[in-house]
Specification:
Helices cover 49% and strands 13% of the residues. By secondary structure, the chain is an alpha/beta fold. Strands 1-2-4-3-5-6-7-8 form an 8-stranded mixed sheet, with helices on both faces.
Length: 367
């Protein structure tokens, strides 16, 4: 008869002593990971609460200056000053609010009626219909002016991206527009003509921007803002308004909606000429202060010079949209100088007043 040998498989004392520390290390690792997760979730919750509470406090601290107008399911904010015709309509740049014009609007208001407004999702205005392309933005403005009982004719003033939208408005509603001022305005072909590294830096990446929007919801920008916009060149009240909006989650979201709007440039490219409309184009000569943060530090000086040369060429093309135009290259001015720098905003005021006079007199612009 065969006998089965029974093997004792229980751990030896040495194996037991070795396994016990391993189990303890594993338990402690699990606890550490768990506490890290709990800590991250807690910090995120605190950051989100902080962002929500701070944003609500900003809204109470800075109520709308003008009127909130229902244009069909959402409100747009418009602020008008002065009396007279034509009415000047101010269009801000990408992701910026009507407070940008605080150095310009009061001066022009002594001559005629002048209105600044916040596009959908900007400042005090509600988010609007998507996509945020020029056709939708022009339609929003047309409805706003109608609902607010602000009749034409209009002199449209567009800074940066605002220049795209004023061109679209003039194309869709030509009978309403008497004149135009482009303030270092964007050109629909600029992204294809800039040096590739510049285009990549300024356009950004949708995935990166989505991450920034997410982080802004947890108060990251607000916590690290420092003195951002505290002394911005505008009156203190407007600087505070600008800071409050810049630190909101909505600001980055509307920036992305307009920057990545489908068919944006194609829509503007198809608008055609302005005929004999009075047009003044103001061009900055030095964008290093405005765009330096977006360009890599390694960007060669020659590339930066090439950028400025191309920018000026594009601005000349904007001036050529009308046979009744003036193109002024302003030495030393930066992209935002014509609004935020009191040394340059009088140049903007003068250009607007010159176009107003030409529309009233029915005369050609006098260089």
């Amino acid at each position: 008869m065969n006998l089965m040998k029974v093997v004792d498989q229980s751990p030896t004392p040495v194996e037991s002593q070795t396994a016990k520390p391993k189990r303890q290390v594993f338990v402690w690792l699990k606890r550490i990971v768990l506490w890290l997760v709990i800590g991250i979730v807690a910090l995120a919750a605190i950051g989100a609460a902080y962002q929500t509470i701070a944003t609500a406090m900003d809204k109470r601290a800075y109520p709308p200056q003008g009127e909130l107008v229902d244009i069909g399911g959402y409100n747009l904010h418009i602020y008008c000053m002065g009396e007279g015709s034509p009415t000047v309509i101010l269009e801000t740049g990408l992701g910026t609010m009507l407070a940008d014009w605080a150095n310009v609007q009061p001066e022009v208001a002594s001559t005629t009626r002048i209105c600044a407004y916040d596009r959908a999702g900007v400042g005090w205005s509600d988010p609007g219909l998507q996509p945020r392309n020029p056709q939708q933005i022009a339609q929003d403005l047309h409805t706003l002016l109608d609902k607010a009982n602000i009749p034409g004719p209009y002199v449209l003033v567009g800074q940066s991206f605002g220049g795209l939208y004023t061109r679209m408005y003039a194309s869709q509603y030509p009978e309403d527009v008497a004149g135009m001022v482009m303030v270092d305005a964007s050109h629909p072909d600029m992204w294809s003509r800039f040096p590739p590294e510049v285009t990549t830096a300024l356009l950004g990446n949708e995935q990166q921007v989505s991450l920034l929007i997410l982080l802004s919801r947890f108060g990251l920008f607000r916590l690290t803002a420092g003195d951002y916009f505290v002394d911005c060149g505008l009156p203190p009240e407007q600087c505070a308004q600008e800071r409050a909006f810049a630190l909101s989650t909505q600001r980055m979201a509307v920036w992305a909606a307009e920057m990545y709007a489908p068919e944006r440039d194609a829509q503007v490219r198809a608008t055609g000429s302005l005929g004999t409309m009075p047009l003044i184009v103001l061009t900055a000569s030095d964008h290093s202060r405005d765009f330096a943060a977006s360009m890599p530090a390694s960007t060669p000086p020659e590339t930066r010079r090439q950028f400025e040369q191309i920018w000026q060429e594009l601005q000349s093309e904007l001036a050529a949209l009308s046979t009744n135009s003036i193109h002024r290259l302003v030495n030393g001015a930066g992209h935002s100088s014509f609004q935020f720098d009191p040394a340059y905003s009088p140049i903007t005021n003068a250009a607007i007043l010159q176009v107003i006079e030409a529309t009233r007199m029915g005369e050609l612009l006098n260089p």
